[in-house]
Here is the input.
Amino acid sequence: MSEPAKEEQSVPEESLSKEKTLAEQAPSSYECRSCGYVYVPSKGDNQGEIPPGTLFTDLPSDWRCPVCGVRTNQFTNIGAQGAPSGFADNLDYGFGVNRLTPAQKNILIFGALGLGFLFFLSLYGLN
Here is the structure.
């Protein structure tokens, strides 16, 4: 008598493509093409009395760049800023390093390399 074949559980490709990383889920920041000012939704705009958490698409129609005064159509989407890269399920792995933003990871990596180089140079002081 033959054994019944085990059914393999597979995840449909459609559901995999719908999963988004935290950086993709975070609200996008927009940069002014004229002066380089970056509107970050989590900070808002104190000068224009825009509260933190206001999305760029929800800004009033009369809002202008606080630095150079151009309209919102002169801004380009530069993606999320300050969000950890990766999926929410993976944030608890890696001694907490997965919760760091890409900028914080760069500081950690290059800071450690710089510190190692300084320790290496300090060996020349030993006699």
Observations:
- Strands lie at 29-32, 38-39, 75-79.
- The helical segments are 13-18, 22-25, 102-122.
- The chain is about 25% helix and 10% strand.
- Residues 102-122 form the longest helix (21 residues).
